[in-house]
Amino acid sequence: MTHEFYDYLVNVKGYSVRTMMSYRNDITAFVAWAHTERRGARWSTLTKGDIEAFIADNAKAGKAPASTNRYLASISALYKWMQTQGYKVENPCRYASRRKVGETLPNTIDTLELRAAYEHSHGMVHIMLGLLYVTGCRIQELLDLRWEDINFKTWAVRLHGKGQKDRIVFATEETLAELDTIREQGNHEGRLFWIDQRTARRMIYDALKAHCHAKQLSPHAIRHTVATQMAANGANVVTIAKLLGHEHIETTQKYIDLAKATDLRAAQRAYIKFN
Questions:
Q1: Can you give the pTM of this predicted structure?
Q2: Listed residue (241, 218, 217, 216) closest to 231, CA to CA
Q3: Of the four, 30, 75, 82, 258, which is 20 to 30 A from 155 by CA?
Q4: Is 14 left (phi over 0), alpha (psi -120 to 50) or beta?
Q5: pLDDT tens digit string along 125-162?
Q6: How many CB atoms lie within 10 A of CB 13?
Q7: CA distance 253 to 237
């Protein structure tokens, strides 16, 4: 039954295999606990008390609040799916207590350092860095780009987001001019980048590490940087949410908070456009 749920996450919800594996690991951990602590229990007989006991045991074992709250979210998602499939179950996570998570601000990269990494990169990684920075897209959205998603006249880029939700963002003349060079060489069918996510992450990390000193050197840190700079330059939370493809405004608010926690004048001076 759980295998059907994992198929649903990938094929219906449009989640990446990596995200699906995160759900699976959380649920597998809970199943292992239930087999030991609640022998004979079924999905239909587990209670809120059982869920909270599982969370408490993990907290005692040193699991961070963010991890135990993720367990709750994953198990709850499974129960909600079972209900839609006609299983006679109640969701015991519905009223389970979430642990408080300390406020954390997203990791960003200094924009001057990011610009240096971009300028000193070459070939495919140069184009990937440019698109990541000017669009704020996710790494998988970047790798899913096809040539027909690029409008070279209007600079519009169609991104294929989570949950099969497309959105339009805009690149810059500089970035698209580099893409146009590749197109003129005859590579203008199918996907822009014929590499997997692991390879792309490694290439981007290697390009960043020589010039950037941020705590996290990843495509998602670039995405955080884009969002934070948009907030520092006056973009409102709704606009940023639309550009990033956030389903919930609350997800976007952290970038507004980070911009407020920074010297806005310094942030604006450091904001380097790629055109």
A1: 0.59
A2: 241
A3: 258
A4: left
A5: 999 999 999 999 999 999 999 999 999 999 999 999 87
A6: 15
A7: 6
